[in-house]
């Protein structure tokens, strides 16, 4: 569509934004010439086509079919006699998944498949730092390569349409622009290591309920403005080499049989040259799927020869139902990908690296910029240790590990620093830690299939606290100078394949938090989760509230550093925290989860677009997050006075002054409003942002580029993007609800 990304990384001197362990100002300014453009990937090279033709001409039909379907859980067959290796794949978003058996979902039982556990998607996007997204991609790409994987089944970036979504923790955002800014550099980072990113799940796969069958319906404008931008940029800007076709249907057809999505949009419009890999067991036909544009069928345990793209494909060719040229077309794409990642001729292929100290450090850097300070009314944070002799550390999440858990891909890691360990690592020995578990993670018997051993045996309900644990927790709080509760959820509770039933905090935590707060007025509540919860009551009652994520190998150290002030928090919510579920658009319109069909009745008003347009007060708005310092914005200005033409870029500058006592990082967010539009518009839309490091007392000018074409809406009358001429308001703030400066621009 629009080459929106390039402009953002050019044209301004660029601060090195990677996190500093000491939370201080950045380590240096890179000049434009040194700066690699993390928003531009390497297009697929077409220089191997002749060699590919030669190879295909020597292959039997059976060999071709072997390359188009899984012949083990995470690989397709190669053709050894022609020097074609298997195509190997690995999940996934949190780091390189442990090796899975070739013919079942059971772990293969290797002892050398450990990997760095990286912060889950929501944590990465909460950094609002594309540079860190590139770092993330680069780390996971290097680890994939070192494990001999060709395709990384990531990033996963479906739009967060409902806060209940089981995979919200894994995805990035409710906003297409933020989504794009995290997705593109991530892919660029992965593919620098000669590993293909497999972007997922294409597309409109926004719920787990009925995910294998649900038929999603929405108008074209909603599709184009909300659900496709990050996928499009992933292809046209990052040049992702593979795409995962989702489980669900769209406008009647399964995504892997959807000619409109796979051929018209992906290949014809966006110029995709790579391969479409099905989600596991998401293919439902042979001829229809192949003709629509699916290339490789992956699935759950065999018999692999019974897959649609295995024996049935061979039979379809033999019976004349499918032309062999059609098969060749798909094989060609697979071979093209293999040449591009140098898996066929491996001369000069990247070697990768795994579990290095550098990778753990990068995981730390990401985690430390992701933590969101929600409330700090009494300035309890950063914790002043003067006079503090003891700290109560309460809650199952103080020790809960999240690298593995739930249904779906996790990481087997040698390092996962828990919050308790982080505090032990960082607190001086003079401070005694009084640890109490507080609550138990437990599930009802009916959920045993999902949660295995951590189910209840007794007559209590999942929300009842264990009286003994409660007493211990209250005593620990009473007998300590400060109490920190680590609550929230975990990756057993938030999981692929099911959406949550409600936003309630599970396991009786609400009661526990209240009792601990009563026992000790100096209580800090830290919520660790990947998706919104109903925390309105807790938020009213507590003065100090911190939000953290399933935050990778170094998550506990990063969190401790934020609490103790060595890192000044700079994370911002990548989605809206509603006061109650019914306020969220998919629920307000009663269109989640649908039945056989899910019609997205809120249309383009997803996330904050709904809250702002309908004047619904969120609990914490999109883009929100406090700092230990304060920032003032002033002097918002444009680069010119005259009206802008459609091909121009608007440059907006604002001075950001750090008026507090700490060095810090602030995310300058730019929202656009068009009041007198002739079409329905959201009250405002994010169209730019930049994270800036500003030393205490200093002022920094932040410049954000907004290509005028970014202001377009998708016009269903001519199926194209239209920029309306007239006046636009550009609003600069540090959350969607805290706009500090405004400028108006004229567009010709
Ligand atoms: C998930 C994918 C994942 C695949 C292989 C599916 O259940 O939806 O995201 O890559 O399994 O593990």
CATH superfamily membership of the largest domain, which one? Glycoside hydrolase, family 3, N-terminal domain
Low-pLDDT segments: 1-33
Largest sheet: 7 strands, mixed
Strand content: 15-25%
Q: Count of helices? A: 21
Terminus-to-terminus distance: 20 Å
Q: What is the CATH top level name of the largest domain?
A: Alpha Beta
The rounded Rg comes to: 25 Å
What is the fold's blueprint, element by element?
Layout: H1 6-9, E1 14-15, E2 29-30, H2 49-57, H3 61-66, E3 70-72, E4 75-76, E5 87-90, H4 121-126, H5 130-146, E6 151-152, H6 176-191, E7 196-202, E8 215-217, H7 220-227, H8 229-236, E9 242-245, E10 249-250, E11 253-254, H9 259-269, E12 275-278, H10 287-292, H11 311-318, H12 324-340, H13 357-370, E13 372-376, E14 390-394, H14 419-426, E15 432-436, H15 448-451, H16 467-478, E16 482-488, H17 509-519, E17 523-528, H18 536-541, E18 544-548, H19 555-564, H20 585-588, E19 597-599, H21 608-613, E20 631-638, E21 649-658, E22 664-673, E23 685-694, E24 699-707, E25 713-715, E26 720-722, E27 726-733, E28 739-747
Parallel strand pairs: 5-6, 6-7, 7-9, 8-10, 8-19, 9-12, 14-15, 14-16, 16-17, 17-18
Antiparallel strand pairs: 1-2, 3-4, 4-5, 10-11, 13-18, 20-21, 21-24, 22-23, 22-27, 25-26, 27-28
Helix pairs in contact: 2-12, 5-6, 5-13, 6-8, 13-19, 14-19, 16-17
Residues 91-92, 153, 200, 279-280, 409 line the site of beta-D-glucopyranose.
Descriptive notes:
This protein folds into three domains: 4-340, TIM Barrel (Alpha-Beta Barrel); 365-613, Glycoside hydrolase family 3 C-terminal domain (Rossmann fold), CATH 3.40.50.1700; 631-747, Immunoglobulin-like (Sandwich), CATH 2.60.40.10. Helix content is 26%, strand content 19%. The protein has 21 helices and 28 strands. It has a seven-stranded mixed β-sheet. Strand 3 and strand 4 form a beta hairpin. Residues 1-33 have low confidence and may be disordered. It binds beta-D-glucopyranose (BGC).
